[in-house]
Amino acid sequence: xxxxxxxxxxVIAPLLLAAxxxxxxxxxxxxxxxxxxxxxxDYASVDTAARRLYVGRADGVLxxxxxxxxxxxxxxxxQRVHGILPLDGGLAIxxxxxxxTATLFQGADGAxxxxxxxxxxxxxxxxAGALVAVMDGKQGDITLIDPVRRVVTGHxxxxxxxxxxxMDGQGHLYVNVEDRNELVVxxxxxxxxxxxxxxxxxxxxxxxxxxxxxxxxxxxxASGRAVVMAASDxxxxxxxxxxxxxxAVILDARNHRFLIPCGKEGVLTVxxxxxxxxxxxxxxxxxxxxxxxxxxDPVTGRVYLPVGTRLAGKAGQPAGFEPGSFHLxxxxxxx
Length: 335
Prior knowledge:
Distance between the termini: 46 Å
Number of strands: 28
Helix content: under 10%
Strand content: over 45%
CATH superfamily: YVTN repeat-like/Quinoprotein amine dehydrogenase
Shape: globular
Oligomer: single chain
């Protein structure tokens, strides 16, 4: 009997230890699906002051009032809009990938205030101090715009296929270069490249976010890795496995965690600090296949993920979308 008791204890003990982990509540769960017109989409962003979500669409900028739920399918017209950056004073600026322009508009009604020429295939749009930086994906340079004076102030030649970017508080812009598997550091004031940093184990870096409180950068790689790097000196702090098809990294500044929507597998990978303060993969939350970008509302903590079901296209023709499939998937954080 003692031997049997010992054997039972050996079997039961690991199960008891694992029980809390198995019962742990996921950090996010689905609470709503907000339907919108079908078609392509790209980046999403949240204007916290105006309480509004923006999504880049093929025909312009979609807007959602975060408090009332009122949806405006096309707030301002555009030509394959990729990124939208909310600005002070109720303004915003969007990039038009098909017309090689950026549009400055009023967030309240979509009134266009100015149009700027950019490089070829403008993509992500980020704040760069007092300026706006537009990543010209095909041309491989950055267009710098002064939204107050409403002029283009210059360009920075980076090279390669530029993806998302992030700015620190010392005038440095960090940008992922997708076809070179590197992260480039730019001195915005000098219009100069300061450093080129290799991203190990990374194929196709796309999404990028910087936690200003910790100085940690996270680059998401479409191939299924996330590279954690010290912004100050480029030290690689970790290379973590994630799901495939990531196109954005969403910072949850309040909790110092990073959320990575992985569209190919339809999951949200969560990176959070472990007991030693190092980032680790702490959860993989089911979302929907195709959900590869998104934005977080810092007031409610909700995550908004644009998604639609893409249909297989015929030879030589672009793929369409399943009718009625596009929606904003709303994920609620656990209490």
